[in-house]
Structures are given as structure tokens and as C-alpha cells.
Amino acid sequence: MNPVREKLDKAIIYCDGGARNNPGPAAIGVIISGIGHQKSGIREYSEFIGRATNNQAEYRAVVFALKKVKQLIGKEKSKDLEVVIKSDSELLINQLIGRYKIEDKDLQSLFFEIWNLKPDFKKVEFIQIPREKNKEADLLVNQELNNQVGLFG
Questions:
Q1: Domains of the chain as residue ranges with CATH
Q2: What residues contact 22, with CB distance under 8 A and at least 6 apart?
Q3: Where are the annotated coiled coils located (predicted)?
């Protein structure tokens, strides 16, 4: 796949979220590839999200990713873009594809936020990957958490 191209057609996004002392200080990490005309075609983001559970952080990473892609390429271009979300969270992916029920009210509201973002894209696919295939996004989460612990811990 050549990430430098004129036509945007597919973005691959690696997402991760984590919390220390679950629930506790939490952060997200997102790696977006396949959009823009950068030589590498890859953008990395991390963000401290305050106090949350691991599962809430995983969901918040997906929300952040979908909103960020739309912001980067614009609403009109996003309608022609296929998005593949990759995460190592079994719970997240299986809830997003309808295999697992969502009992937690906070996760339900985050699920609906993601669901309401899906029509902004041509297609959104959710894929579970092994933890070792998501190391870069995990590193972003842990770097952000380490920075916050250094500031507030």
C-alpha cells in the first residue's frame, strides 16, 4: 500500500486506551495512516482524558480517532473514506460489532457516540488484533500517563 496518493479511500487506525489503578488516571493513543499527503502518511496522537476505566478509555480512543479523521480531511471527503479501526480490546471490538451486550451505562453512551459518527464515513470496520500488533498505540498511552503522573503524582 502506498500511503502517498491523491485519492483518499481507506484509513487504518490503531487505537488504545488505558487507566492506572482502573479506574484512575487514563489516556488514549491513536495512530492514523492512509490520509493526507505526508511522506509517511502516519499521524500519532495521545491525550490524557482524566479519570476513567480501561474500557472507557478504549471507547474514547475510537471516538477521538473518528472525530480526528473527519477534522483532518473534512466532512465531504470523509463520506468517501473507508475506515478500519484496529484495537486489542476484545470487549470493545465485540461490543462494537454487536457480538457482546453493553451493560455499562457509560459504555452505552460512548457506543452511541461512535454509532452516530459512522454515517460520516463510507464504511467503518472494527477489527480485533493481538496486543503485540498494537504496541505503538499502547506506547502512546503509557507515555501520556507517565507524563501526567510526573506532573500530578
A1: 10-129 (3.30.420.10)
A2: 53, 54
A3: none
